[in-house]
Amino acid sequence: MSVDMKEKYIRVYRYCYLRIKDRSLAEDLTQETFLRLLEHPQYCGEQDIRLLYTIAGNLCRDHFRQQAPEELPEEVPDLSADGERLIDDISLHDALNSLSQQDRDMVLLRYVNGEPIGVISEITGMSRFAVSRRLKKVLGMLRKELEKEAVT
Amino acid sequence: MTKKERDALKKAFEIPDPLQADSFVQRKEFTEEKESRRRIFLFSSLPSALRYGTVVLAAAAVIGVWGGFRNWSSSEKFRNDERTGTTDTVVVTSPEEETTAAAKDPEDSLSIVTAVSSSENAHVTVTTTAAGGTASAVTTGTAQEVTASGTAARQVTTTAGPASARTTTPVTTTGSGRQTSATAASTTVVTATQTTVATATTGVSGWQPQTTSPRVESDLTVIPEVTYTVTGEIVPASSLGNSTDAPGIPKELVPSVSELRSESDALVEVRVDEVLYTSENGQPVTQENVTVQGIFYGGMRHGSRISIRSNGGYIPASEYSGEGAGDLGDVFIYDSGGNKRQPKMGDIYLCFIREDSSGAYWLVTGDDMSKFTFDVDTKSYVNCHDSYDTYTYNAFIEALSD
Q1: What is the pTM of this model?
Q2: A33 — contact with chain B (CB < 8 Å)?
Q3: Which bin fits B357, alpha (ψ -120 to 50), beta or left (φ > 0)?
Q4: CB 3.0 to 4.6 Å from B198: which of B69, B95, B167, B186, for a disulfide?
């Protein structure tokens, strides 16, 4: 049970982190997601991953709504501090950042979390064919970026 | 997408691993809550005794419902539903001596199946899954000779052993508008452990018997004012010159079937359960308490018991009104009353009867000219009084229609 639940925990955490970009906050929201699931009327002992993603998405939106506007810092943070980041992934990272939030979510869910097309279509509210076409298009774009990087 | 590409994507997202995953999934809320939620569906929150008791009760209810349905489906009422075809099966098993099983020839269009065994310990079973026609099972001679006959009967079972012969009564049903078709004819001699099965598909045509009535077990027999137990010396009335027996009666004096019908209230097939001797006005009268097995017409019910009276029987000489009996002393006088043979228990016959004021029925002629038995050899109805007055089934039905 715990192995299966841990796997779901990690997937939901990734989903939250992708939006929040804060590890501790993403973990808080992930745990809150599971606790909310316990009180959900559809909960019957199994953690339905679709329900978890939906709750997590709603919690993330609630978080942004409640967040007070912050002023940008005067000093630009030194990204080289964590310069151990793989240089090969920079272009791919940029390519991912250039995607819309929905496309990033779909890429994460499909290729990182390994969710089936049906689950993604239910979470995003799109048809299975639309999700499939969208993913294919995004994946082609990302591959081009990777090929460019390889050539240079 | 290749695994390498997946790993590259995972790195590009730059998502750090969670720190509290292990500790969170071990929280009690998930394990306990999960089990409690399941209890709703498995009824595991109930005490175990109550839980298992409920399961047992549910199983008993299912079995009870199923058993009730089977009883209902095999009940008489259910089986009396109209069915178009009839199938007779005869099984004759004889351990020692030869046994004969026969089914009626097709061209006679007679719905009859017969099985005859002359061996000891023979078991004769005639089973018919028909809804129409009449049925009979006859045990004749000694217990070693068994004759069972069924005419589109529902079930006839005759068992003969060294000491007894028992016949279970078939339920007789009659219907209308059936087509006649006898398709099986078989005469087989079997020995030792061989078994012969003859199957006939039969039907009824011609005269239309009345519709089926439900089988009832009502007892409509009457108790005579006096009954005699025959003991001691028996003096035939013929020796006194008072016999009403009329052997060799001319054929033209024998009433026809249509005449018998016009004089009667009912034509029924009965099995004799009890024979009583009584008297009326100093004349011997025999009362047979019988069970109705088949109804051709008349307001009868299958399975009901009635009393049929006829002339003749035994009477003490002191009560006999005829001449020449006054000084005979303590003896019984036997007067045939015109009957060829005395009735006995187990007899099965058709009879034309008429009800009297006492509730008993009388043979319309007062003697056995109103009775017909079924002859398995000729497969015809034979008048009990005059053996030359015989009818095949169809002829009998046609005579009724005249």
Answers
A1: 0.38
A2: no
A3: alpha
A4: B186
